[in-house]
Amino acid sequence: MYYYLKEISQHNKPSDCWLIVHNKVYNVTSMINKHPGSKNAIIKKCGTNATIDYNFHSSNTKKNIWNKYHIGYVKNNEYSQKCCNIM
Predict the structure, then answer these.
(1) In this structure, what are the phi and psi dihedrals at residue 48, rounded to the nearest 5 degrees?
(2) Rounded to an integer, what distance in angstroms lies between the CA atom of residue 74 and that of residue 14?
(3) DSSP secondary-structure letter at 50?
(4) Is 65 exposed, middle or buried (0-12, 13-18, 19+ CB in 10 A)?
(5) What whole-number distance in Å separates Cα of residue 50 and Cα of residue 26?
(6) pTM of structure
(7) CA distance 37 to 84
(8) 1-5, 27-31, 64-68 — which is least confidently predicted?
(9) Sheet strands (E) in the chain
(10) How far apart (Å, rounded) are the C-alpha atoms in residues 7 and 87?
(11) Cβ–Cβ < 8 Å for 57, 45
(12) Among candidates 19, 3, 1, which has minimal Cα distance to 11?
């Protein structure tokens, strides 16, 4: 599934939270209250790019936890063109 940045940005609250990480889209709504670093760490990023925050986590965490929240990709690679050029 592919999503436009405008659509992703609308998922910007604790009850509906999507993140962009390396041109992938994650629905992390159900993960907010489980985040060991506090729910605010995720809430402040809802609907935006969280690549830098994602890169902070270990490779094991990325593979084992984040994969189940992956729902798609940013349409037409808008992420790299308009967002941050962090790839």
Answers:
(1) -135, -175
(2) 21
(3) -
(4) middle
(5) 10
(6) 0.81
(7) 24
(8) 64-68
(9) 2-3, 12-13, 16-21, 24-27, 48-49, 70-74
(10) 21
(11) no
(12) 19
Residue 33 one-letter amino acid: N
- Per residue in 14-64, pLDDT tens? 999 999 999 999 999 999 988 777 888 899 999 999 999 888 876 766 667
10, two tokens? 């609308």
Kindly give, in sequence order, each residue whose CB lies less than 8 Å from that of residue 9, ignoring residues fewer than 6 positions away. Answer: 47, 48
Query: To which residue do tokens 């790839």 refer?
Result: 87
Residue that the structure tokens 């992390």 belong to: 28
What's the farthest any 2 CA atoms get from each other in the chain? Answer: 33
**DSSP code for 46:** T
Q: How far apart are CA 84 and CA 42, in angstroms?
A: 18
Residue with tokens 């690549």: 51
Tallying the residues shown for the chain, one arrives at 87
Distance CA 76, CA 79 (A): 8
